[in-house]
Amino acid sequence: MRIIAITGGIGSGKTTVAGWIRETGVPVIDADRISRRLTKKGGEALPAIRAAFGDTVFHADGTLDRAVLADLVFSEDPAMQQNLNAILHPMVIERMQRELDALETRGAPEAVIEVPLLYEAGMERMADTVICVTAAEETRLKRLTERSNLTRRQALARMRAQQDVNKTEALADYVLATDGPTRENKQAALRLWQRITEKTEA
Q1: Are 172 and 7 in contact, with CB atoms under 8 Å apart?
Q2: What DSSP string runs through 67-78?
Q3: What is the pLDDT of residues 136-169, one digit of tens each?
Q4: For the residues of 118-142, what is the DSSP string, one character each?
Q5: What is the structure's pLDDT at 150?
Q6: For position 77, which CATH number holds?
């Protein structure tokens, strides 16, 4: 089974691109979806998060206070993000591999993994091909402030907490820009996907 990873900075459009590929019938495994499952009420990651960050990142009902945790993780202390990643990344990798194994058992010819911190987590080793979705900083800021109700400062902090986009682009096999109109972005994404799958078949 061919595994194609989609990565890119926050606000780059990678989830939208993954959605377009999913529409063609290709299964997509989303690392963020797995992470949310691990951190929902009763999630397996919560005890370790409480031990690392304390009770202040939890609501009284035991659910994770994502806003408070985000303020800590995206503070100027990089150790905070490192601590959270050390908890979540191994759990996400294990569960993603489990889903990939199930798809391979069912005979899926290709699968996509959507992973924001692909290289930071060492998850590029799971993929045969990597697509980096990218967009100009102002485009990303506009998307983040509009969709996530973040201030410009908060959006910049989240962008700066990720690997430099130029490094990610240099490491990837393909780079897909999404600064254009939605229709053009979709056409470009599907053309790239066709190139990748035709190359695989050859």
Answers
A1: yes
A2: HHHHHHHTSS-H
A3: 999 999 998 988 888 888 888 888 888 888 999 9
A4: TTTTTGGGG-SEEEEEE--HHHHHH
A5: 83
A6: 3.40.50.300
List own/partner pairs for 145-148 with CB under 8 A and 24 or more apart.
none
Starting from the edge strand earliest in sequence, which strands make up the sheet with 129-134, in order? 28-30, 110-114, 2-7, 129-134, 174-177
Distance CA 99, CA 115 (A): 14
Boundaries of domain holding 20? 2-201
52/58 Cα distance (integer angstroms): 12
How many Å apart are CA 138 and CA 166, to the nearest integer? 15
Number of domains in the chain: 1
Which among 89, 66, 69 is positioned nearest to 80, based on CA atoms? 69
- What would the pLDDT profile of 95-140 be if each residue is shown by its tens digit? 999 999 999 999 999 999 999 999 999 999 999 999 999 999 999 9
